[in-house]
């Protein structure tokens, strides 16, 4: 189990628990308490298990939690979300903490990472989060989602191959990307055409929050219901519709 450092009075408070003021806007109410606990676990067990580098611990909020939480701006209410290559839970677990209305599946192939993720999910009582050990392509033809997210997983051409078969006809892939996103979009041209994707949208998010700005690339199907991957139109255990306001997605 994840070590409960909060009960060890002889252990100093981990640096990952230093909360910036902007966090209260991103994690409302009791979600901020859960986010703080997650940051503590990243700064301790996450570092010990090699999921987070030791130098990242002092800047967990700025570089990771706040940076990932702003993704909530572009995820529709009540969506079923798959986070591909979730690693230590970035951005999927952070998104689940910020948005309890979402159903989030964390997809990660490495056992040590999925073990950590499941321990965090259990400790924080995140009933709307599930952990799936495996590669993204293992879910092709079995599951589709309203939104598929990723962060620092792969260049866009390869990411499209992994993620778009998981996107329902009315859904989208939303990938966090850096300054090279335009070059990646150009390189992905043949894949976008072959899969019959719509034009990628580069969105700047979190700009009104100090220290939270980032950008994402959003890719959806060119014509809903005419997806370019033949099995994506017949989901089993996933969603093939656009999420409705005020309703939880049910698989």
Report on this model:
The longest helix has 18 residues, at 31-48. Strand 2, helix 5 (111-124) and strand 3 (129-133) form a beta-alpha-beta unit. 29% of the residues lie in helices and 18% in strands. It starts with 22 loop residues before the first helix and ends in a 31-residue tail after the last strand. It has helices at residues 23-26, 31-48, 60-69, 92-98, 111-124, 156-163, 181-187, 189-194, and strands at residues 80-84, 103-108, 129-133, 145-151, 167-177, 201-205, 214-220. It is globular. It has 251 residues and is an alpha/beta fold. The protein is built from eight helices and seven strands; from the N terminus they run αααβαβαββαβααββ. Strands 3-2-1-4-5-7-6 form a seven-stranded mixed β-sheet, covered by helices on one side. It has a domain at 62-232: Vaccinia Virus protein VP39 (Rossmann fold), CATH 3.40.50.150. The model is unreliable at 3-16 and 231-251 (pLDDT under 50).
């Amino acid at each position: 189990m994840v070590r409960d450092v909060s009960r060890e009075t002889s252990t100093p408070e981990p640096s990952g628990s230093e909360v910036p003021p902007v966090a209260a806007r991103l994690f409302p109410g009791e979600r901020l308490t859960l986010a703080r606990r997650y940051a503590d676990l990243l700064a301790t067990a996450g570092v010990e298990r090699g999921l987070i580098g030791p130098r990242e611990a002092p800047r967990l909020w700025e570089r990771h939690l706040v940076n990932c939480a702003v993704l909530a701006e572009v995820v529709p209410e009540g969506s079923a979300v798959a986070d591909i290559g979730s690693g230590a839970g970035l951005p999927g677990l952070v998104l689940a903490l910020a948005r309890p209305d979402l159903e989030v599946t964390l997809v990660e192939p490495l056992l040590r990472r999925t073990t950590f993720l499941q321990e965090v999910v259990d400790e924080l009582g995140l009933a709307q989060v599930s952990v799936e050990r495996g590669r993204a392509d293992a879910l092709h033809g079995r599951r589709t989602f309203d939104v598929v997210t990723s962060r620092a997983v792969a260049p866009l051409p390869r990411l499209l191959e992994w993620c778009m078969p998981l996107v329902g006809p009315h859904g989208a892939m939303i990938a966090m990307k850096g300054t090279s996103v335009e070059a990646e979009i150009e390189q992905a041209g043949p894949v976008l055409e072959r899969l019959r994707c719509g034009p990628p949208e580069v969105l700047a998010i979190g700009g009104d929050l100090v220290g939270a700005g980032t950008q994402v690339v959003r890719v959806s199907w060119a014509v809903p219901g005419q997806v370019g991957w033949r099995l994506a139109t017949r989901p089993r255990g996933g969603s093939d519709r656009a999420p409705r306001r005020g309703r939880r997605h049910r698989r």
